[in-house]
Structures are given as structure tokens and as C-alpha cells.
């Protein structure tokens, strides 16, 4: 887990395939539920209107057959506890719910005695499964109106819970199918990414077949071709490095022998110092160009504490004391010579550019940290971001002379090749602290003596 928070939702092919499908499915289900509710409402209103028309058909026929002076009284007589009838010259309907209902003329004998039918849909009473206040107005042949209000029309309970459960089950099944299809589509690419991530550029292992659609196979073939080209370049670089090492180091060795024969002591020391500086520069350049492969050195379990003490003892032999702080015992899987080069470079920087150098080894969170610090002036803030750039040297390094600007870049490359990291920071109160982080080795591994 890196310091930055992981993005959520992750920007992966699986999410990009799944998200549109889920969105479309959710929209489709919502539209289906809305349409279902509207159709259910429409069917309930139509059924209630037809029930109300059936209930008043006989009463309308009786009112139409009665004499005009008797119609109002007859309507009142035919009214009941849940049915209110009236006769008049105009329809009596709620204006916001009124509509024509010519399709109800087929009910009873309404078609024979009416010229127009209007209804007003009732108000839903979900608690009792009914529609309240269903109004029907029937226009008789002489132009008068029979108005009826049915207080409540019971409906067959259309409980849509089962429907919603069924829709939900179908939605879950479709989501699972879409997720499975998306995972199957993205799996070859994920497998390819894992395979490429663990391939060693200097190895000989080919890129395995990943299968999947044609586009994924094309990407795998292109990566395999690129991997072969990179390995060829690395082999050519190794050959060139070997030739360069031989061609440069051999003349330098002969020059050192000839310098020993110079009669002038001052000139001899100057030439020897220049040759030693050239030899050191060539060594650093070769180490940097050799990179993280360690020159073919095998990785073995190494005691970091013992290796640190060896480096400290070597500096003590030259008269430089390095303070040893907490040295916890820790074992890492590493290339001993390459790791020693990193430790020596860090201690050498602390000795050369600082004062009172110190070193400590700490085990924490499944890894080991080697801290090398000093109490010197520290690294300027503007240089901290560039100290790991090849050939970069700060003002104090340039003033001190010597060096190639490749020590820290080489150390960082070696640390990352071991699965670790190298960080550099200014210490509070002055000085510089270099932190080398390495993963711990399995406890069953045999430790190679430092």
C-alpha cells in the first residue's frame, strides 16, 4: 500500500466494462417499475369505473324511465350508504379528474338510455385496497344528467411485492452475468500484467501464452517482441561493458606501474592521485552502467548487521570512526558485494560531506531499515530532489572535488533491484540521513557470512 490513497472505484478494464452495464440495467429496471406502476394504476382506475358503471346501470335505467318531476326524488330513494345518486341539468364531477368514458356504454342498458358518459377516477386507498370517491355522470336522451358517486370501490388486491422480488432477482442474476462476463474479458489482460511485472529483463524466460481475445494476444505478442529486443540490448551492453572494463583498466594499471618509476616524488604522488581518481571514476561508471543486475552476482541471505559492521571496521582501519547505534539483527536476500557497495557509499558520503557519522539497523513492519546520518550542514533543500540524478553533484561535492555523481544513483538502483528503496532527507538540527529499506529474508534461509 503506497502512501497515496488508492483510487476508488479503481480505473480497471473490469470496472469500465461493468459500470455501463450496471448503469443501463438500473435505468431499465427503474423505467420498468415506473411503467408497471402506471399500467397498474390505469388498470385499477378502469376496473373501478366499470364496477361503478355496473352498480348504477339499473338506477340510471329507472331514472330515465320515470317522469321528469319524479326523477330527483327517485334518485334520492335509489341512493345507498355507499352510493349517492342525483339528477340535474349538468354533470357533477371533480374537474381535475373528469374524462369521457364512451367505452362504458356497453355496461347494462346504458347505451340505450344515455348519450354521453363521463367518469372521474377515484382516489387510491392502499390501506383498504380500494378507490374512493369514484364519480360517474350519465347524460340521458333529453339532455339531463344522472350523477353518481361511489364512495369506495374495492379492488382485487394487486400486491406487487412478488413482482418486485422477481424483478430484483432477475436484476441480481443479470448483474452476476455481466460481472462474470466482464471478469472473463479482463482476466487475460490482468494475467498478462502479472506475468510482465515478474519477468526479469536479463533472464531467458519467455512470455507465456495468456489466451483471451485477439487484441489481448496481439498485445502479448508485441510485448514478447519488445522483451526479446530489450534482452538483446542488455546482452550487447554487457559485452560492451566487459570490453570497456578490459580496455580501460588495463592501461590504467600499466600507467600506475610506470608512475611508480617517476624520479620526482611530488610528480609521482600527483600522477598516482590522478590515476586513482580516474580508476575510481571508471569503477563508478561501470557500476552504474552495470545497473541492478549486480554483474551476475547471485542473491543469498546476508546478515545486514554483520555487513554494516564490516564497512564500519574498514573505515576504522583508515582512522575514521563511525558511531554504531542500535544494530538489530536482520537477514535479507541480497547480493553481498552490491549491497556492501551501497552501504559503503552512504557511509563515505556521511564521512566526506558531514561530521560525526553514525549508522543504525532497525527492523520494522516486515522490513529492515539501515539509517546512515551525520551532523554536518546537510543537503540544501533545492538539491534533495536531484541527488539521485546521474552525474549530479551539489555545491559542496563540487567544492570538495572528486566523485562522479553516480554513487547515489547506483546505490538507489541496487536498492530497488533488491525490492527496497533508498531515501535521503535533511535531519532536524542539521545533517543528512540516508534510509536504506530492504525486505526481510525468510527465517529458514542460511545466512552467508559477511
Automatic annotation (TrEMBL):
UniProt enzyme class: transferase
Residues annotated as domain HAMP: 183-235
UniProt-listed SMART domains: HATPase_c (SM00387)
Pfam families: HATPase_c (PF02518)
Main localisation: membrane
Name recorded for this polypeptide: histidine kinase
Reactions listed under catalytic activity: ATP + protein L-histidine = ADP + protein N-phospho-L-histidine
Coiled coil spans: none
Entry keyword annotation includes Cytoplasm: no
Subcellular location(s) of the protein: Membrane
Organism: Belnapia arida
Domain of life: Bacteria
Gene Ontology molecular function terms on file: kinase activity
EC number assigned by the record: 2.7.13.3
InterPro entries in the cross-refs: 2C_sensor_his_kinase, HAMP_dom, HATPase_C_sf, HATPase_dom, His_kinase_dom, HisK_dim/P_sf, Sig_transdc_His_kin-like_C
Residues annotated as transmembrane: 17-40
Ranges where the Histidine kinase domain occurs: 243-442
Keywords: ATP-binding, Kinase, Membrane, Nucleotide-binding, Phosphoprotein, Transferase, Transmembrane, Transmembrane helix
Amino acid at each position: 500500500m503506497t502512501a497515496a490513497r488508492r483510487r476508488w472505484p479503481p480505473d480497471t478494464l473490469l470496472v469500465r466494462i461493468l459500470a455501463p452495464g450496471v448503469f443501463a440495467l438500473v435505468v431499465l429496471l427503474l423505467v420498468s417499475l415506473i411503467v408497471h406502476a402506471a399500467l397498474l394504476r390505469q388498470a385499477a382506475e378502469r376496473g373501478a369505473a366499470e364496477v361503478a358503471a355496473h352498480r348504477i346501470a339499473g338506477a340510471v335505467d329507472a331514472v330515465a324511465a320515470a317522469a321528469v318531476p319524479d326523477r330527483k326524488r327517485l334518485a334520492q330513494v335509489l341512493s345507498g350508504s355507499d352510493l349517492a345518486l342525483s339528477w340535474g341539468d349538468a354533470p357533477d364531477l371533480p374537474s381535475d379528474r373528469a374524462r369521457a368514458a364512451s367505452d362504458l356504454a356497453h355496461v347494462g342498458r346504458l347505451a340505450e338510455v344515455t348519450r354521453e358518459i363521463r367518469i372521474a377516477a377515484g382516489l387510491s386507498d392502499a390501506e383498504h385496497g380500494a378507490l374512493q370517491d369514484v364519480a360517474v355522470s350519465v347524460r340521458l336522451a333529453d339532455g339531463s344528467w344522472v350523477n353518481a358517486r361511489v364512495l369506495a370501490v374495492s379492488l382485487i388486491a394487486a400486491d406487487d411485492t412478488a413482482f418486485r422480488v422477481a424483478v430484483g432477482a432477475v436484476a441480481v442474476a443479470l448483474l452476476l452475468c455481466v460481472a462474470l462476463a466482464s471478469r472473463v474479458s479482463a482476466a487475460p489482460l490482468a494475467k498478462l500484467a502479472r506475468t510482465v511485472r515478474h519477468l526479469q529483463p536479463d533472464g531467458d524466460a519467455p512470455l507465456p501464452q495468456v489466451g483471451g481475445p485477439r487484441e489481448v494476444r496481439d498485445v502479448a505478442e508485441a510485448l514478447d517482441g519488445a522483451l526479446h529486443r530489450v534482452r538483446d540490448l542488455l546482452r550487447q551492453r554487457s559485452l560492451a561493458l566487459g570490453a570497456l572494463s578490459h580496455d580501460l583498466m588495463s592501461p590504467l594499471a600499466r600507467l600506475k606501474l610506470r608512475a611508480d618509476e617517476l624520479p620526482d616524488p611530488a610528480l609521482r604522488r600527483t600522477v598516482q592521485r590522478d590515476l586513482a581518481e580516474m580508476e575510481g571514476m571508471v569503477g563508478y561508471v561501470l557500476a552504474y552502467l552495470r545497473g541492478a543486475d549486480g554483474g551476475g552476482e547471485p542473491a543469498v541471505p546476508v546478515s545486514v548487521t554483520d555487513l554494516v559492521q564490516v564497512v564500519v571496521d574498514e573505515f576504522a582501519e583508515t582512522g575514521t570512526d563511525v558511531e554504531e547505534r542500535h544494530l538489530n539483527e536482520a537477514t535479507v536476500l541480497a547480493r553481498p558485494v552490491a549491497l556492501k557497495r551501497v552501504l559503503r557509499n552512504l557511509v563515505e558520503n556521511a564521512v566526506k560531506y558531514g561530521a560525526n557519522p553514525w549508522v543504525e539497523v532497525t527492523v520494522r513492519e516486515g522490513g529492515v531499515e539501515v539509517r546512515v546520518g551525520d551532523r554536518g550542514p546537510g543537503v540544501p533543500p533545492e538539491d534533495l530532489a536531484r541527488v539521485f540524478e546521474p552525474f549530479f553533484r551539489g555545491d559542496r561535492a563540487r567544492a570538495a572535488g572528486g566523485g562522479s555523481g553516480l554513487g547515489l544513483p547506483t546505490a538507489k538502483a541496487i536498492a530497488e533491484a533488491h525490492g527496497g528503496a533508498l531515501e535521503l532527507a535533511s535531519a532536524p538540527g542539521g545533517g543528512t540521513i540516508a534510509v536504506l529499506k530492504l525486505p526481510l529474508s525468510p527465517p529458514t534461509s542460511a545466512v552467508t557470512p559477511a
